[in-house]
Amino acid sequence: MGKAMTKTKKRTIASLITLAVTLAFYFAASSLIYAGAIDSYTVTLINIVCVNVVAAVSLNMVTGLMGQLVLGHAGFMLIGAYTSAIFVNTMGGNLYVSFPISLLLGGLFAGGIGLVIGIPALRLRGDYLAIITLGFGEIIRVIANNLKITGGAFGYSGYPAFSSRTQPNGLFNFVFIIMVFIIFFSYTFGTSRHGRAVIAIREDEIAAESSGINTTYYKLLTFTLSACFAGIAGGLLSQYVGVIGAEKFNFNYSIEILMMVVLGGMGSITGSVAAAVVLTILPQLLLNFSDYRMLLYSIILILVMLFRPTGLLGRKEIQVIPLFEKLTGKNKAKTPAKEAKK
Question: Bridge partners of 244?
Answer without folding.
Answer: 156
